[in-house]
TrEMBL record:
It holds the Pfam family Cu-oxidase. Keywords: Metal-binding, Oxidoreductase, Signal. The keyword Metal-binding applies. InterPro entries: Cu-oxidase-like_N, Cu-oxidase_2nd, Cu-oxidase_C, Cu-oxidase_fam, Cu_oxidase_CS, Cu_oxidase_Cu_BS, Cupredoxin, TAT_signal. The keyword Transcription regulation does not apply. Residues 1-24 form the signal peptide. It comes from Ruegeria aquimaris. Residues 36-148, 155-268, 356-457 form the Plastocyanin-like domain. This is Multicopper oxidase family protein.
Length: 458
């Protein structure tokens, strides 16, 4: 481990050089084993890993332009690191072991201290063995408040997760890297939770306007989210405000790591319950309930205005921007014939024996050379071409990008794009944040079994 200035500077003379801020104790974010009632009442508690004693971890909430300062203290039985998902962050604080920092060993700590340029709904999660560590509960909400609070009655963070628990004991299934999950859709669970609980309830009033901040923290499951007894709009995706709020009609997809901010009005009557639903082939399942008691003080509001835009870069002339193709390859039924692993070309069978089932442009795992070497400030288009039989949620670190619509015009800002099997999604990226940035599938089992690359901005 590198010595920090604090450890080096021990003499009185040296102390005078110490920046003031170093004296203020940094609040700790302790990652440790704990227990929580994840399954419905009547089942035993589940042994989990968490930040600050429960999952989701401690809510971190800061005003836009403010800073997050947290000392990660690792009391887990494995090395770890924290990634601040969706934050256009200083590269050294991005939390990617082997790329931006060393993993924090057992008993070790790491000081994260960074600025928040954008308002919105973000989250933090482990980025070491994330396939296992996120599944065990190592994630939490990171909320950045707009300078002027929007006109709503309640602000509710809803972190959605999908747990694979033993149906008798409610113990977490510990078989994290089995080849079947890795080579198919990923680790699907058998219990959907909101904020680490089964079917929690919130008290609301008829006519109230709620801001629901949805975060899909699941390893692999793409949720189709629906509303019952609530009517409203999507106002932001992946933290970034939409230019105009989008009416929710029917279900909308939320891939792992994606967020959606909704403004919804409670239309269910007093005495009834509204709910957030997961729409599946055989119907809708309640994710959480809103128990309606009484009437809001004010009459129902008119449609909301857009949230104020974040200071995102201008997207220039798209037609002039270089187009880079990233082909998503492998997985069950489209098995890799061969791919590069490091500088070795390997056959599909050999790769499978090493637990590698996927490749990006013929490379499994993060290669030595970046997928893209971008000059700071340059505009690029990336086409994700899904040649596999599965969904992939491609995520870029350190940047948001604009999804390019079928008609070629720039759509919403996102940090994670869902690419369905056999389809292509094109994005536009202004590479304005210097450093080494991961680009990977956020189905965490896919990321670990080959679907990880990176790009460099200098
Ligand atoms: Cu949510 Cu590589 O991260
Ligand atoms: Cu994937």
């Amino acid at each position: 481990m590198k010595l920090t200035r604090r450890q080096i500077l021990t003499t009185g003379a040296a102390l005078a050089l110490l920046p003031r801020r170093a004296f203020a104790a940094m609040p700790e974010l302790v990652a440790a084993e704990s227990r929580q009632q994840i399954a419905p009442g009547g089942y035993p508690e589940t042994a989990i890993w968490s930040y600050g004693g429960g999952t989701p971890g401690t809510e971190i909430r800061v005003p836009q332009g403010g800073r997050v300062s947290r000392r990660l203290v690792n009391r887990l039985p494995q090395p770890t690191a924290v990634h601040w998902h969706g934050i256009r962050i200083d590269n050294t604080m991005d939390g990617v072991p082997g790329l931006t920092q060393e993993a924090v060993p057992q008993g070790g700590s790491f000081d994260y201290d960074f600025e928040l340029p954008d308002a919105g709904t973000y989250w933090y999660h482990s980025h070491n063995r994330s396939m296992e560590q996120v599944a065990r509960g190592l994630y939490g909400p990171l909320i950045v408040d707009e300078p002027k609070a929007p006109d709503i009655d309640r602000d509710i963070v809803l972190m959605l997760d999908d747990w694979r628990l033993d149906p008798e004991t409610a113990a977490l299934d510990g078989n994290f890297d089995n080849g079947h999950d890795l080579s198919h859709a990923g680790r699907f669970g058998n219990l959907l939770t909101v904020n680490g609980r089964f079917d929690p309830a919130f008290e609301v009033k008829n006519g109230e306007r709620l801001r629901l901040r949805l975060v899909n923290a699941a390893n692999a499951r793409v949720l189709e989210v629906g509303l019952d007894g609530l009517e409203g709009w999507i106002v932001a995706l992946d933290g970034m405000p939409l230019e105009s709020p989008l009416v929710v009609s029917g279900a909308f997809p939320l891939a792992p790591a994606q967020r959606a901010d909704l403004f919804v009005d409670v239309t269910a009557e007093s005495g009834a319950a509204a709910s957030l639903l997961s729409i599946e082939r055989d119907g809708g399942y309640g994710l959480c309930r809103f128990d309606v008691t009484g009437q809001a003080a004010q009459a129902r509001r008119t449609a909301p205005e857009a949230l104020p835009p974040n200071p995102l870069p201008e997207i220039g002339d798209l037609a002039a921007a270089p187009l880079h193709e990233m082909r998503l390859q492998g997985g069950a039924m489209r098995w890799l014939d061969s791919a590069m692993l490091g500088d070795t070309e390997m056959g599909g069978r050999e790769l499978a024996q090493l637990g590698k089932f996927w490749a990006l442009n013929g490379r499994a795992d993060r290669p030595e050379a970046p997928f893209l070497d971008a000059a700071r400030g340059s505009l690029h288009r990336i086409a994700f071409v899904n040649e596999t039989n599965f969904d992939h949620g491609m995520h870029l670190h350190g940047h948001h990008f604009r999804l390019i619509g079928a008609n070629g015009t720039p759509g919403p800002w996102r940090d994670t794009v869902l690419v369905p099997p056999g389809e292509t999604r094109q994005i536009a990226l202004v590479a304005d944040n210097p450093g080494k940035w991961l680009l990977h599938c956020h189905m965490l089992g896919h990321a670990m079994s080959g679907m990880t690359s990176w790009f460099r901005v200098a």
